[in-house]
Inverse folding.
């Protein structure tokens, strides 16, 4: 053994010598040994996180290009570039340089569109990725903290989106900032001060774009990068989750080795995302600021929309009535030092819906953990149907979000479908409260029905569509038994039962424990148990054994 | 008995019984047998896949060349059409360049690289031995610092650390001036002429015909060297003329208009968008941002939407030459509400 250690390794090629040189100084062999063949499970729904990561890389690349030409100054200037209709128009340097990027720098417009489209894709893919994680229960132990990191990433992506949207200082983004300023003003006690500090005085001032620029290109992206690093580090520590199926359990991970298959697929996927964004940026105009013109507090265009991810907050602002049943929602409160104004008609929609969504999002893993008293590690995902209540809660939240989102287009809905704008708002107000309840009920029933269908298939096979007439005249449809692998996928899940309140050491069921028991019943009282071998055996004694047998023979013959 | 459409066998079998043990569950049959692909068994299929991958990489090369063509051979002139053409060539060039590489690699991986799924054991995230060792280390460190035995050090450190961040907050004080009275005043003053936005030409009362609407700024705004947009953001006004009988001025506001001509702030009292849409027939003003609707015949009271307060009215009259002028500034702050508004 000692002789082996003392014989130094001699690389044969030049590449080998360089690699060995580096390896002796950084210890790369150990890393490669650990990660070179690391196993990753494969499923199309695992791609959303990858899409988010790759669109962020594209954002960094295209954004860096744009910073070389963009000037975030709000100083006045006169446009003198190539776009004829705006020649001689007064505008800020920021708007001027954005127009120059679009019209006078080759590829500048393309880069702007790549940047904007990938920003939309970035937020969208994070959102869809989180939906995937939620509906499959991937947030359960040990991944609760990574779920929280993901939530922070979602918020950061919204922040980076909005700060970037405001930079060109065009009419649309200026009105967006005006709305933000109005919302900030509604904050009690400190709102006016925050507004004056943020804008460097009265709206719009000459400071805001430079400040948003620093946030947009430095602070927020740095935080996103940090969060991505933590996120991926935890993915490596936990290893990836996997969908349930034969051969997969909480103790193993089944999939393709990183090298070569998974690395090739994931690496190739980056180029595909880049290509798709490039194709969209080539063919579909986004944010044509030359049509909007520079920001001016007086004009506005009707039917304008915020970027999609801001829509739900804008929709909340639209749905909130200023007066509710004759009661004003803005209160002038007399204090000893004077009268102060509380604008609940702005404050509530700006804070409450987003507050509810993000609070529930962040604490949900702990809610479910408390209800189920489940402290085991879960690496096998739930099929959404196998966690009916969770899936229903998710759909209720999703519906709540979508109603707010639709409300941001209330005027377009009214004009496109020729309905009254007021009616659209009234309907959406009602839907905001009723929609989630309907979505919950319907989703839960669908999930339970799908579970029953799974039982049916596991026990009796799938319907073949072949009708057979038996010797005594009865007609029956032939069912083809599924194989063991397929059946295990249908029956290999847990269906917890509601757990009653457990007394503590003093023999008392505490109020908190009673509440937990109540929630447990809410979660699990409707349940479909997975089929058992005994049931399968019993099912075969139902009289259509012959038909199934003949079907089996046929399968064997094939 | 033959009907199982509901999927529930007779009896209580559908509900799992407590203490369901491993024997009563289906056993995991393990990974399904690997199915070979065409390229695994047929060398010609493998060769075909190889050619397809190479073809896709070739498309990428063509895409890059297309990009260069668009970049160097399309001369940007003053028309949108050439810009659009160049954008399409650059974009599709990049798209083909990237998609060629991406789809090529993925096809290579799927068709030719081994597709055996492998199983790997997961490791314990935290072993009990590690935990014990870590606890011991932390205890030792705390013990060696002596922080528990020396409360004086601990308390002064806590005090210092609690205070130290405050300069970092205070430092942001100079981000902007204090609000002061800035939000309570606009450029309007006694005798300020109402002029058209953006040309700055004054308006005769006779110019304002029934049913018309003017977007108005105060005279002198366009000449401001500094703070033009800030002043404009407060001072913009909508000027409309109705049959005087349709207006119902409240006490004290009877003479704020002139023969049915009235002026109201254009800045929405909700969150500050310009209330730019005027419906002649209904005499409603609509904010395009959040659809707050104000009724001109009721002194711009809110009749729909999220705004709470009516639009502030600018008292107007005419000067000796017959031009419309302001009687005074607005009598209340314009725009969105704020805490100190009162």
């Amino acid at each position: 053994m000692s002789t082996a250690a003392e014989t130094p390794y001699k690389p044969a090629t030049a590449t080998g010598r360089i690699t060995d040189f580096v390896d002796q100084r950084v210890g790369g062999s150990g890393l490669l040994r650990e990660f070179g063949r690391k196993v990753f499970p494969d499923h199309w729904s695992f791609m959303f996180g990858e899409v988010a990561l790759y669109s962020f890389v594209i954002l960094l690349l295209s954004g860096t290009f744009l910073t070389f030409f963009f000037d975030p100054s709000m100083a006045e200037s006169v446009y003198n570039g190539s776009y004829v209709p705006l020649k001689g128009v007064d505008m800020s340097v920021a708007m001027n340089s954005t127009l120059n990027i679009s019209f006078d720098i080759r590829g500048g417009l393309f880069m702007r569109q790549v940047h904007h489209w990938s920003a939309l894709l970035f937020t969208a893919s994070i959102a869809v990725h989180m939906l995937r994680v939620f509906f499959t229960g991937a947030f359960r132990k040990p991944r609760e903290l990574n779920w929280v990191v993901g939530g922070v990433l979602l918020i950061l992506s919204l922040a980076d989106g909005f700060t970037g949207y405001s930079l060109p200082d065009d009419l649309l983004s200026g009105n967006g900032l005006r709305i933000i300023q109005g919302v900030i003003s509604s904050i009690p006690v400190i709102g006016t001060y925050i507004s004056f500090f943020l804008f460097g005085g009265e709206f719009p001032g000459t400071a805001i774009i430079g400040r948003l620029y620093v946030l947009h290109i430095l602070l927020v992206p740095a935080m996103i990068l940090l969060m991505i690093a933590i996120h991926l580090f935890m993915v490596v520590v936990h290893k990836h989750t996997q969908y349930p199926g034969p051969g997969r359990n909480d103790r193993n991970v089944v999939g393709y080795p990183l090298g070569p298959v998974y690395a090739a697929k994931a690496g190739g996927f980056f180029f595909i995302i880049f290509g798709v964004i490039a194709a969209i940026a080539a063919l579909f105009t986004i944010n044509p600021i030359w049509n909007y013109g520079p920001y001016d507090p007086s004009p506005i265009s009707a039917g304008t929309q915020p970027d999609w991810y801001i829509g739900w907050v804008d929709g909340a602002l639209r749905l909130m009535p200023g007066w509710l049943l004759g009661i004003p929602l803005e209160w002038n409160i007399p204090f000893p030092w004077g009268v102060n104004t509380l604008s609940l008609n702005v404050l509530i929609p700006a804070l409450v819906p987003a507050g509810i969504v993000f609070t529930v999002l962040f604490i949900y893993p702990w809610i479910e953990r408390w209800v189920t008293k489940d402290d085991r590690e879960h690496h096998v995902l739930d099929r959404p149907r196998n966690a009916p209540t969770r899936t229903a809660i998710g759909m209720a939240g999703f519906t709540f979000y979508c109603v707010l989102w639709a409300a941001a287009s209330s005027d377009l809905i009214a004009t496109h479908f020729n309905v009254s704008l007021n009616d659209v708002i009234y309907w959406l107000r009602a839907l905001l409260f009723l929609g989630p309840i309907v979505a919950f009920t319907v989703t839960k029933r669908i999930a339970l029905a799908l579970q029953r269908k799974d039982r049916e298939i596991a026990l009796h096979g799938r319907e073949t569509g072949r009708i057979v007439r038996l010797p005594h005249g009865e007609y029956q449809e032939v069912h083809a038994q599924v194989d063991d692998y397929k059946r295990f996928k249908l029956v290999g899940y847990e269906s917890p039962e509601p757990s009653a309140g457990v007394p503590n050491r003093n023999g008392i069921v505490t109020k908190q424990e009673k509440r937990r028991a109540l929630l447990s019943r809410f979660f699990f009282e409707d349940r479909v148990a997975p089929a058992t071998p005994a049931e399968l055996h019993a099912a075969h004694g139902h009289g259509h054994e012959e038909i199934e047998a003949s079907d089996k023979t046929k399968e064997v013959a094939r | 008995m033959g009907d199982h459409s509901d999927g529930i066998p007779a009896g209580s079998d559908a509900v799992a019984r407590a203490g369901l043990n491993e024997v009563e569950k289906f056993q995991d049959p393990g990974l399904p047998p690997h199915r070979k692909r065409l390229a695994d068994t047929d060398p010609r299929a493998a060769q075909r896949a190889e050619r397809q991958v190479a073809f896709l990489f070739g498309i990428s090369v063509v895409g890059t060349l297309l990009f260069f063509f668009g970049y160097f051979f399309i001369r940007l002139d003053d028309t949108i059409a050439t810009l659009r053409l160049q954008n399409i060539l650059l974009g599709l060039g990049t798209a083909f360049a990237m998609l060629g590489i991406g789809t090529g690699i993925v096809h290579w991986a799927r068709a030719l690289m081994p597709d055996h799924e492998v199983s790997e054991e997961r490791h314990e995230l935290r072993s009990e031995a590690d935990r014990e060792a870590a606890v011991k280390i932390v205890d030792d460190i705390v013990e060696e610092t002596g922080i528990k035995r020396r409360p004086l050090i601990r308390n002064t450190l806590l005090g210092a650390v609690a205070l130290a961040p405050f300069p970092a907050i205070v430092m942001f004080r100079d981000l902007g001036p204090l609000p002061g009275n800035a939000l309570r005043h606009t450029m309007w003053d006694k005798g300020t002429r109402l002029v058209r936005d953006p040309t700055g030409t004054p308006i005769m009362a006779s110019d304002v015909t029934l049913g018309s609407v003017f977007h108005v700024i105060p005279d002198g705004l366009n000449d401001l060297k500094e703070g033009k947009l800030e002043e404009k953001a407060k001072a913009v006004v909508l000027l409309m003329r109705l049959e005087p009988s349709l207006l119902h001025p409240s006490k004290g506001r009877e003479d704020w208009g002139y023969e049915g001509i009235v002026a109201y702030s254009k800045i929405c009292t909700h969150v500050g968008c310009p209330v730019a849409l005027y419906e002649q027939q209904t005499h409603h003003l609509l904010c395009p941002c959040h659809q707050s609707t104000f009724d001109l015949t009721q002194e711009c009271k809110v009749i729909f939407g999220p705004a709470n307060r009516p639009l502030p009215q600018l008292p107007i009259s005419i000067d000796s030459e017959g031009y419309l002028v302001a009687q005074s500034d607005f009598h209340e702050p314009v725009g969105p509400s704020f805490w100190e508004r009162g």
User: Anything to note?
Assistant: Residues 1-36 of chain A form one domain. Chain A touches chain B through 144 residues (CB under 8 Å). The beta strands of chain A are 39-40, 76-78, 90-92, 252-257, 323-324, 327-328, 330-335, 338-343, 462-469, 475-480. Chain A is about 60% helix and 10% strand.
